[in-house]
Amino acid sequence: AQSVTQLGSHVSVSEGALVLLRCNYSSSVPPYLFWYVQYPNQGLQLLLKYTSAATLVKGINGFEAEFKKSETSFHLTKPSAHMSDAAEYFCAVSDRGFKTIFGAGTRLFVKA
Amino acid sequence: EADIYQTPRYLVIGTGKKITLECSQTMGHDKMYWYQQDPGMELHLIHYSYGVNSTEKGDLSSESTVSRIRTEHFPLTLESARPSHTSQYLCASSGGGPNEQFFGPGTRLTVL
Strand A73-78's sheet: what is its strand order? Predict the structure, then answer.
C-alpha cells in the first residue's frame, strides 16, 4: 500500500529565506512522485513530478525537489521565498497505476 | 484552450435537495476523478472513471453517484443532500503517462 506523510501542517518563512517542505512516502513499487500547489479558492496545480529519470527535479516558479530512495523522501525546496509563494502544498505518490495518494498538505506562510 | 471546468463554484442548499455538480474537460483525457477536500485534510478519492461508460467508487465512501456518457463530461449527483455533505469537491482529469492530474477550480458545497 502507498502512503504519503508531509511533516508540518504549517511552515512559516521570511521573504527571501529558504523554503523546505518535507515529504516522505511509502510504496511497494518504484513510484511516481508529485508536488502540487493550491492557492485560495482554486484547484491544485502541478509544480513538478518525478518519473524515474533525474533524481533532482526542477519545477515551475523556482521550486525543485530531490528524490532520495534510501530515505524514501521527496522534499520540496526553493532558495528564496516570495510573498506569492504563500499557498498550500501537497505531495502525492502514484504506483504507476490509476490512483494517486495525496498527503494532508502543508500551508506555507511568507512573512514580509 | 485546453482546460477543466467546474460549475457551480459555490452552492448553498437545503437538506434533502437533489444537486448535480458539473465537470467538463477539453483535453480529451480518458481518466477523470472526483475528490472531496476538507480543510487541513488530504484529498479523498470518491469516484473515478477510466473512460466512457466506466465508473468506479473510490477509497472514501460517498452517497453520491457519477456518470460518464461523454469523454469530456463527468457530473456528480447527490440525490438528497445532508449537512454531512458540506465540503469542497474537486474534479480532475489525466491522460497517458505518469498519471499527472489536472484539476478544476472546485465546487464549495454547503448544506444547511
Answer: A3-7, A19-26, A73-78, A64-68, A56-58
Q: Cβ–Cβ of B45/A4 closer than 8 Å?
A: no
Kindly give the parts of chain B with pLDDT less than 50: none
Neighbours of B56 (CB within 10 A): 11
> Mutate which of B32, B36, B42, B89 to test chain A, going by most A C-beta atoms within 10 A?
B42
Residue recorded with cell 477510466: B50
C-alpha distances (whole Å) from B55 to each of A4, A17, B17, B30, B49 are 25, 46, 24, 12, 4
B16: left (phi over 0), alpha (psi -120 to 50) or beta: left
Average pLDDT, rounded, for chain B: 92
Among B101, B108, B109, the strongest candidate for a mutation testing the A interface, having the largest count of A CBs within 10 A, is B101
**pLDDT tens by residue, B53-80:** 999 998 877 789 999 999 999 999 999 9
Residue in B42, B98, B102 closest to A104 by CB: B42
**Neighbour count for residue B91 (Cβ, 10 Å):** 29
